[in-house]
Structures are given as C-alpha cells and as structure tokens.
C-alpha cells in the first residue's frame, strides 16, 4: 500500500488528538486511586520523573516510526525494516499492537459504559441523600445486571466506532477539537470547586509535600508502570496517529506538549478528587472503587453535590471516549491496509470488540466463577495482562526498532531535530528508556 494521504490539518489538531489518546481512564480513574495506594506526593514525583525518562522518549519513538512510514503500523514497520535490510518479521509487531488494543478496548468499553450509567444517575439526583451502604449496594447491583451493562457497553462502542468510521479529518480531528477544550474546562471547574472545600489544603499537602519514607521499591515500580500506561504507548496506536502528522511539525515539541497536558489532567483530577475525599474525612487509599463508590458517597453529602458529580462523570465520559477512539484507530488502519473500506473496517472491529466485551460484562455475574487462566476471570485477565505485560513488551520492541533497527536517516528526518538532538534522544532511548521498560515488563510478569 502506498503512503496514506490523510493528515491532521494543523499542528494543534495533532497535539489535541494525541492528548485525547493519552488522556482517559489512566488519568482520571487509575491515577487517583494508584496515587492513593502509594502514598501521595512521593509517588507523584516519581511518576513525573518517569514520564520524562521513560514515557516521553518511547512515545516519541512510536510516533516517529509512524511518521517515517506514513502507512498503517503493520506496513510502516515492514517498509522501514526492508529499508534497513532487517527481518520482515518486524511487521508482526503491528499486529501484536492491534491485538493488544483489541483486548484493552474490550474491557475499556465496558468500564467506560459505567460512566454513562453514573452520569445519568447523577443528573437525576440519584445519589443525593443516599447512605454509603445504599450507594455501594447500588454499584454492586449494577455490576450484577448484565442487561444494563450490555446496553451501556453497546452505546459507548457505537459512539466510538461512528467517529472512527468518519475518518481523520471529519471524525477523529473534529471530535478532538471539540472535546479536549471542553474536557479541560470541566477539569478547571472541578478544581475551582475543590478550592472552596475544606479538603483543598490537605489535598495539596498530600499531593505535593513528599514523605521520603513512603518510597519503597513497589512504589517506584508502580510509578514506572503508570508513566508508561498513561501516555498510551506500546500498542502502535500512536504510530497510526504519527502517520497522519503534518510534515513540518516539530515532533519533540508536540510530544512534550502532550506529556505536559497529560500530566496536567492527572494533577487537576487528583486535586478535585482528593479535596472532596479529604473534605468528607474519607480514606484516599480506597483503591479502584474510589471513583464509582467513594466519590458518589462524598459528593452526596456536599452542597450542589449532584451538579458537581454530574460534571465529573461527564468529564470521565469525554476522556474515555477520546481514548477509545485512539484504541480503535490502529485496528481499523490495519484492516484498511488489507484493502477494506474504512466504514467496513470500523464495523468489523466494533462487532468483534463488542462480542469479546460480553465476557467482561458477564464476569461480574453469570461468569463470575469462570477463571480460564491464572485464577483470573475474564475481566481480570483483559484488564491486567494487556496493560501490564503486552504494553511494556510492545513499547520495548518499538523502542528497540526505532533506536537500533530503522535507518538512521529516516529516523532523523521523522524526528525533525539536529544531529545533537537526535544523538540525545537515541542515547536516552537506548540506555535509559529501554532498560527501564524492561524492568516494567519483568515486574508485570512477576
């Protein structure tokens, strides 16, 4: 297949698209609870350091490969490997990435559907005046109701695939240009509201005054893993976006802007969430249930709680929507590379993801006791192994390909920097990012 003719229309459109890809459950759901479980500020500082040393260089590598190849991930890897005289098997990395995002999207769509359910309940004032026991029981009842879960899973996936089927300019770019500014506006509104609560000061102290004694090897490992996860690297999804990158845009500046915007979302979400949690005297280390149980309990006791909780779940829905589009794009691009029209490819991907997602839905009810591998049910398998093992493995291979295999001239052109900048980037990837990624992978396997 020849080079793709599609491009992001502006530099801003590319930055918003990649930011939309990176910002999602990792920032608004996973970051707050994993920060809560790992001691607050100590984890936060390590996370930011690893974004710079690990996440950002690998993200640049992945975008660079897509920009140099100007094809689907499978074809870009095969084309560049052929130029370098390397094995054609490198193209299988693109298929591995597509399989990874397929697994992730199958549970991502289900969990994102929860935000639809909770948004509707919040708008209707369903949490106002409810006791903690009632809110917890309501969440459990929702998980045990396959019909409601399937409806929300289906609705969210239709929202996602309709945008992807519309293409780069009319679909992905148009939606990101609308939703990303709205997402930041909602975040600022929530952070401004948090500043009026009694928990604002304690939340800032807990997030930004580190306790060195809280740093353990496990905290370091979690910070490394989350820095990798939050930037959406390792699945060739950003490689697909890089293929549409404008020719004259600075890749390092764009990637740096995405990293800053991504971390900003996590910080603002953390401030908003922990201010409310501390205002109600609740434990910030509540784990994954922090968003869907702890937050509704906390907001239910606050003035205008229904309004602010509705804004929060709208924010979550927008963030997961833009991320799910990023997850679907490389799969659709791969099928397009095989000759399918975009609309047909999107329909096939959507149907396949929907079917596999039913296993996640039923793992909370009918299939709760079905544990096919490693003592895990379907939801635990797809929400653990792909993010913690497949993504680091994909990121490791992408980094090796970009820094050691692909032709240096092509890499230099795609990166768009001078000799000194290229040497710095390649050294950082070869001797810092690759070893750290290997550590993340080994930790995931362990």
Give a description of the structure:
The structure is a single chain. The chain is mainly alpha-helical and 446 residues long. The chain has one domain: Amino acid/polyamine transporter I (Up-down Bundle). The chain contains 18 helices and no strands. The protein has helices at 11-22, 25-37, 41-69, 73-84, 92-123, 132-143, 146-165, 168-194, 200-208, 217-230, 237-242, 251-279, 294-300, 305-337, 342-362, 378-405, 408-415, 419-445. Helix 4 (73-84) packs antiparallel against helix 5 (92-123). The chain is globular and about 65 Å long. The two termini are 40 Å apart.
Could you give the order of the helices and strands? HHHHHHHHHHHHHHHHHH
Task: Report the major sheet.
Answer: none
> End-to-end span in angstroms?
40 Å
In the CATH hierarchy, what is the architecture at level 2? Answer: Up-down Bundle
Overall mean pLDDT? 88
Number of strands: 0
Broad shape: globular
State the fourth-level CATH superfamily: Amino acid/polyamine transporter I
Helix-strand makeup class: mainly alpha
CATH class: Mainly Alpha
Low-confidence stretches: none
How much helix, percentage-wise, in residues?
Answer: over 70%
Q: How much is the radius of gyration in Å?
A: 21 Å
How many structural domains are formed by the residues? 1
Fold-level CATH name: Amino acid/polyamine transporter I
Total number of helices: 18
């Amino acid at each position: 297949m020849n080079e793709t003719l599609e491009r992001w229309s502006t530099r801003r459109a590319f930055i918003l698209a990649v930011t939309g890809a990176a910002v999602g459950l990792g920032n608004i759901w996973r970051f707050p609870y994993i920060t809560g479980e790992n001691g607050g500020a100590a984890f936060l500082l390590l996370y930011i350091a690893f974004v710079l040393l690990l996440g950002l260089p690998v993200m640049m590598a992945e975008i660079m490969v897509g920009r140099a190849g100007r094809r689907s991930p499978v074809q870009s890897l095969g084309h560049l490997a052929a130029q370098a005289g390397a094995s054609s098997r490198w193209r299988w990395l693109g298929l591995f990435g597509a399989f990874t995002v397929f697994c992730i999207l199958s549970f991502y769509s289900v969990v994102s559907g929860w935000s639809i359910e909770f948004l509707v309940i919040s708008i209707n004032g369903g949490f106002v005046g409810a006791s903690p026991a009632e809110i917890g029981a309501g969440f459990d009842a929702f998980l045990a109701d396959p019909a409601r879960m399937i409806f929300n899973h289906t609705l969210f996936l239709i929202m996602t695939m309709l945008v992807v089927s519309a293409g780069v300019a009319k679909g992905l770019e148009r939606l990101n240009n609308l939703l990303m500014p709205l997402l930041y506006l909602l975040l600022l509104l929530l952070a401004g509201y948090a500043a009026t609560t009694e928990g604002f000061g304690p939340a800032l102290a807990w997030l930004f005054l580190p306790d060195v004694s809280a740093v353990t090897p496990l905290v370091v490992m979690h910070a490394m893993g989350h820095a990798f996860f939050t930037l959406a690297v390792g699945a060739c999804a950003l490689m697909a976006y890089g293929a549409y990158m404008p020719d004259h845009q600075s890749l390092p500046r764009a990637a740096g802007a995405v990293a800053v915007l991504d971390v900003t979302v996590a910080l603002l979400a953390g401030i908003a969430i922990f201010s409310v949690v501390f205002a109600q005297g609740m434990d910030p280390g509540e784990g994954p249930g922090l968003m869907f149980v702890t937050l509704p309990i906390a907001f239910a006791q606050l003035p205008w709680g229904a309004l602010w909780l509705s804004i929060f779940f709208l924010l979550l829905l927008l963030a997961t929507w833009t991320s799910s589009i990023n997850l679907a794009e490389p799969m659709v691009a791969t099928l397009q590379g095989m000759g399918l029209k975009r609309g047909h490819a999107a329909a096939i991907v959507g149907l396949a993801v929907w079917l596999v997602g039913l296993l996640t839905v039923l793992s909370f009810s009918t299939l709760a006791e079905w544990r096919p591998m490693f003592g895990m049910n379907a939801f635990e398998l797809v929400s653990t192994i792909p993010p913690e093992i497949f993504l680091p493995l994909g990121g490791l291979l992408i980094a090796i390909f970009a820094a050691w295999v692909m032709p240096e001239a092509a890499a230099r052109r795609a990166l768009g920097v001078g000799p000194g900048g290229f040497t710095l980037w390649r050294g950082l990837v070869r001797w810092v990012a690759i070893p750290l990624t290997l550590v993340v992978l080994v930790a995931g396997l362990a």
